[in-house]
Design brief:
The chain is α+β, with helices and mostly antiparallel strands. It has 2 domains: 175 residues, Immunoglobulin-like, CATH 2.60.40; 32 residues. Belongs to the PIGX family. Pathway: Glycolipid biosynthesis; glycosylphosphatidylinositol-anchor biosynthesis. It is a single-pass membrane protein.
Length: 220
């Protein structure tokens, strides 16, 4: 009975995410509808990015300079050239902006990029599973219901413009969500011999052309 009462008092929070555009370079759109009025609180989505997808910290810094997005990335130093099998998970705290069409709705978007994967056997695609974000609230001037919200272990400020960490809260009951799938093109292992042969042939041919040009026009 107590559990039912708490769930009734804590109206459902919904979170949805969409991967816009096509190819390796996409936009991640996160939309949240709170079950209650935020009351001036900062709203954020904590997104865990698997090794197959990443946010470029340099691109993120440029976007923040132009006030196009607000986010904190952990860690903030990333090898953007690393393939999927040499990368690691990332944590993105994406600050959401109010949606003018809905009083309890918030949204934000950030560019994400797929990493190259190992060649696969019998398939031309690799699947990257993107779990639903965790909804977080940071209220500096108001109190959240202890029945509905619990302190979250997030060491981050209430906004990207502030450097002082504050207390974030997450919902005590899981919000409605769905996972997202990113399909990344990969090479076929069956083509390995052909690719190696063509690469070797191209290398020898180009090296020969460079050597011939150097002998003909060079001064030794």
């Amino acid at each position: 009975c107590v559990t039912l009462d708490v769930q009734a008092a804590c109206r459902d929070t919904t979170v949805t995410q969409e991967l816009l555009k096509e190819g390796f370079h996409r936009d991640l759109l996160v939309k949240v509808e709170l079950g209650e009025d935020a009351g001036g609180c900062a709203v954020a989505a904590q997104v865990r990015l698997p090794p197959g997808i990443y946010v470029d910290p340099y691109e993120l810094a440029t976007l923040q300079q132009h006030n196009l997005t607000k986010a904190v990335l952990f860690p903030d130093v990333i090898d953007v050239e690393a393939p999927e099998y040499l990368a690691r998970d990332l944590l993105l705290l994406l600050f959401l902006e109010p949606d003018a069409r809905c009083s309890r709705c918030f949204r934000a978007a950030v560019p994400v990029h797929a990493r190259y994967h190992r060649p696969a056997q019998g398939t031309e695609e690799a699947l990257v599973v993107l779990e639903s974000p965790e909804v977080l609230l940071c209220c500096c001037h108001s109190q959240l219901s202890a029945e509905c919200w619990k302190p979250a272990e997030v060491d981050a400020p209430c906004s990207s413009d502030n450097t002082s960490p504050c207390q974030w809260h997450s919902t005590k009951h899981s919000p409605a969500y769905e996972e997202s799938m990113l399909r990344v093109p990969v090479g076929l292992k069956e083509h390995s011999s052909l690719v190696c042969a063509l690469t070797l042939l191209t290398t020898v041919l180009c090296s020969g052309l460079i050597l011939a040009a150097a002998c003909k026009y060079g001064h030794f």
